[in-house]
Amino acid sequence: MSDCIFCKIINGEIPSAKVYEDEHVVAFLDISQVTKGHTLVIPKVHKENVYDLTPEIAGKVFEVVPKIANSIKKQFQPEGLNLLNNNGKIAGQTVFHYHLHLIPRYGKGDGFG
Ligand code: 5GP
Ligand code: ZN
């Protein structure tokens, strides 16, 4: 989609700090990290939100989540990690290209929750 920020990140029109990329999926640091290492995982194909995903695309996204979670764990050594996905404006979705937040947790006062 031509006016989608995340499609522009995928095709390199907008720079991002990519931490993972394969044929189907890209992961990059959130521009406004709620905690250190806050990462977004997205499918390369433009799908608006969870309602729009096919099982195959959902599978491709979740297939790489353990790998990315473990690399966040190794690099940032958080005490825990939240997975979060907002669907629809009322639920807090601001970018309408499906994305899964990986939010490392460091304890009380870490900025999230
Ligand atoms: P949502 O609120 O839709 O669940 O999350 C959208 C996320 O995308 C936000 O956390 C926001 O900081 C992030 N974001 C928005 N624009 C950009 C951008 O241009 N680059 C990166 N890396 N993250 C972005
Ligand atoms: Zn898109």
Structure description:
A motif (Histidine triad motif) lies at residues 97-101. Residues 5-113 form the HIT domain. This is Histidine triad (HIT) family protein. It comes from Metabacillus malikii. This protein is of the alpha+beta class and 113 residues long. It has one domain (5-105): HIT-like (HIT family, subunit A), CATH 3.30.428.10. Helices cover 25% and strands 22% of the residues. The protein has a five-stranded antiparallel sheet with strand order 1-2-3-5-4, with helices on one face. The radius of gyration is 14 Å and the shape is globular. The chain binds guanosine-5'-monophosphate (5GP) and zinc ion. Zinc ion (ZN) is lined by residues 1, 4, 6-7, 46, 97. Guanosine-5'-monophosphate is lined by residues 5, 14, 16, 28-32, 86, 92-95.
Question: What are its keywords?
Answer:
5 strands; five-stranded antiparallel β-sheet; alpha+beta; HIT family, subunit A; globular; binds guanosine-5'-monophosphate; binds zinc ion; 2 helices; 22% strand; single chain; 113 residues
- Tally of separate domains: 1
Strand order of the largest sheet: 1-2-3-5-4
Residue runs with pLDDT of under 50 for 5 or more positions: none
Q: Under the CATH scheme, which class? A: Alpha Beta
CATH superfamily: HIT-like
Helical amount: 10-25%
SSE pattern, N- to C-terminal: HEEEHEE
What composes the largest sheet? 5 strands, antiparallel
The count of helical stretches stands at: 2
- For the secondary structure, the number of strands is 5
- Provide the gyration radius in Å: 14 Å
Structural class: alpha+beta
Instruction: Based on Cα principal axes, name the global outline.
Output: globular
CATH architecture: 2-Layer Sandwich
User: Which fold does the CATH topology refer to?
Assistant: HIT family, subunit A
**Percent range for β-strand residues:** 15-25%
Q: How confident is the prediction overall: mean pLDDT?
A: 97
Distance between the termini: 32 Å
What small molecules accompany the polymer chains? guanosine-5'-monophosphate, zinc ion
